[in-house]
Design brief:
The strands form six sheets. The chain has a seven-stranded mixed sheet, sandwiched between helices. Strands 11-12-13-14-15 form a five-stranded mixed sheet. Strands 16, 17, 19, 20 and 21 form a five-stranded antiparallel sheet that branches. The protein contains 16 helices and 26 strands. The longest helix is centred in the N-terminal third of the chain and has 17 residues. The radius of gyration is 23 Å and the shape is globular. It is 31% helix and 25% strand. The chain is of the alpha/beta class and 523 residues long. The relative contact order is 0.10. Strand 5, helix 5 and strand 6 form a beta-alpha-beta unit. It folds into two domains: 391 residues, ANL, N-terminal domain (Rossmann fold); 99 residues, GMP Synthetase, Chain A, domain 3. This is Long-chain acyl-CoA synthetase. InterPro entries: AMP-bd_C, AMP-bd_C_sf, AMP-binding_CS, AMP-dep_synth/lig_dom, ANL_N_sf, ATP-dep_AMP-bd_enzyme.
Length: 523
């Protein structure tokens, strides 16, 4: 049995819907700026007016409680307005990645049984390619530059009633499709209470005063259609009465310009964003003093990258952990406590966590041993949409089996060492990719790295490293092999090294190792 961590104190979480949570903020901050998009600033009061107008228009179109409405939009003011208008009616939001190709879009529209579809006007060709294979009640194009169908709907008289009566613990607010990094994308059903709970949990880990909370400016380039951006940026910012600074995509020069001119106080990011900012800083230093809190999620942040970022700013990057099935956050390094580089921290309030044996999932492993990370808490999903067998395999006796391999130290801090499906077994030895990747990132000239297992007739599997080289540095396979041999057991040293121009990634910067493995099998 592992030692229990020094943990956050439990908190009280109200049983309420997401529209009710938003109404609370509007009542307190009606005149304050809720969203900034370029030169456009929208107050909390104006935002609610537009939400209620769009809700009435959707009601007129027949949208009702239990309907599924999809959003395929980048970060823009139309996203939160559409999101809350759908929830206002007791309907469910289906979030769609704007980078999806026609087959991926077809899967979600069919699988989620979508009836109404908000789509960026520029993406209509993607829908046109599959429109004959789906049956939708209404398509609502959204333009960021000219009047569109959306603008007509948002200019109607606001709905005369309050939000639809919602059962927060039962009614599904969001169907969030998994990234598909290890297989077919599944629809995660998150209730109103799941997301409200995770919002309160995240808020309670902050140490700011009420005034600092309400004057927060959150630079939001992580996509809102991803659960990380949805909860940790949008819903949390509105709950705190802050300003959501929206950027449609990550462009390092634009992000630096926003940091220098708008002085954001918070920046939730992912490792690839921090890598780009670090590289840009080496060429042109910029002022980071306004930022009180960097957070990193979606994928492990290499320790070497964290150390480099600490050299740019006295503010540490607080690494946490989450997954779509948990709304998403379950762990975080404490803002006002010990922060351990390479660790995902400790469970957030009202969350239990342990590491169990991979074979049965029934026995908790000893301190320092590797097993599967399992969590329990009010943020854990209701289940997968229309997938009872997968739900039963993932949710067992109230515990969410994450599929991630982890270990816990003597202080109760957790460390992710890889995915169960990414574990490499070479000559009978377990190789955790993150161990090898951490060594690779410490090699001068390695910009990005990903380690996977590939078939080997003698060893069963062998270790292969895909590496993106820095343009400013010379780097050879011999150098990499030499440095790995100095720091790793022989069976962990990559036997195959491949230099590539870029690594395939999801919209939030998570490396798609599945694509790397698939490309190997096709050779």
């Amino acid at each position: 049995m592992v030692k229990q961590p020094s943990s956050y104190e439990g908190i009280s979480i109200p049983e309420m819907s997401l529209p009710e949570l938003l109404h609370e903020s509007v009542a307190k901050h009606s005149q304050k700026v809720a969203m900034t998009f370029g030169e456009t600033r929208t107050s909390y009061g104006d935002m609610l007016d537009r939400i209620q107008s769009l809700a009435q228009s959707l009601k007129n179109l027949g949208v009702k409680r239990g309907d599924h409405v999809a959003l395929m939009l980048p970060n823009c003011p139309q996203y939160p307005i559409s999101y809350y208008a759908v929830l206002y009616l007791g309907a469910t939001v289906v979030q769609v990645n704007p980078m999806y190709k026609p087959p991926e879009l077809l899967h979600i529209l069919r699988d989620a049984e979508v009836s109404v579809f908000f789509i960026l006007e520029d993406l209509m060709p993607v829908y046109d390619a599959i429109k004959n294979d789906v049956s939708l009640r209404e398509i609502i194009p959204v333009s960021l530059t000219s009047p569109s169908r959306y603008d007509e709907l948002v200019q109607q008289d606001p709905i005369e009633t309050g939000p639809e009566y919602i059962l927060p613990k039962q009614d599904v607010a969001i169907i969030q499709y998994t990234g598909g990094t290890t297989g077919r994308s599944k629809g995660v059903m998150l209730t109103h209470f799941n997301i409200v709970a995770n919002t309160f949990q995240a808020a309670s880990t902050q140490v700011e005063t009420e005034e600092e909370e309400s004057t927060s400016r959150v630079l939001t380039v992580i996509p809102l259609f991803h659960v990380y951006g949805m909860t940790s940026a949008m819903v949390l910012t509105f709950h705190r009465g802050g300003d959501l600074i929206l950027l449609p995509r990550f462009d390092v020069e634009q992000v630096v310009h926003v940091i220098e001119t708008m002085k954001p106080t918070y920046f939730p990011g992912v490792p690839t964003m921090y890598l780009a900012l670090y590289q840009y800083y080496q060429k042109r230093p910029f002022d980071l003093s306004s930022i009180m809190n960097f957070t990193s999620g979606s994928a492990p942040l290499p320790v070497e990258m964290m150390n480099k970022l600490l050299g740019l700013s006295s503010v540490p990057v607080l690494e946490g952990y989450g997954l779509s099935e948990a709304s998403p956050t379950t762990h975080r390094n404490p803002v006002d406590g010990v922060q351990k580089p390479g660790s995902i921290g400790i469970p957030i309030p009202n969350t239990e966590s342990k590491v169990v044996d991979v074979a049965t999932g029934k026995n908790e492993v000893l301190t320092g041993e590797v097993g599967e990370l399992v969590v329990k808490g009010p943020q854990v999903m209701k289940g997968y949409y229309k997938l009872p067998d997968e739900t039963a395999a993932t949710l067992r006796d109230g515990w969410l089996f994450t599929g991630d391999l982890a270990k816990q130290d003597e202080d109760g801090y957790f460390y992710i060492v890889g995915r169960k499906k990414e574990l490499i077994i070479a000559s009978g030895f377990n190789v955790y990719p993150i161990e090898v990747e951490d060594v690779l990132y410490r090699i001068d000239g390695v910009e990005e790295a990903a380690v996977v297992g590939v078939p080997d007739p003698y060893r069963g599997e062998t270790v292969k490293a895909f590496i993106v080289k820095s343009q400013e540095k010379e780097l050879t396979t011999e150098q990499i092999e030499r440095e790995c041999k100095e720091k790793l057991a022989a069976y962990k040293v990559p036997k195959i090294i491949s230099f590539i121009d870029e690594l395939p990634k999801t919209a939030v910067g998570k490396i798609l190792k599945r694509e790397l493995i698939t490309s190997e099998k096709s050779k």
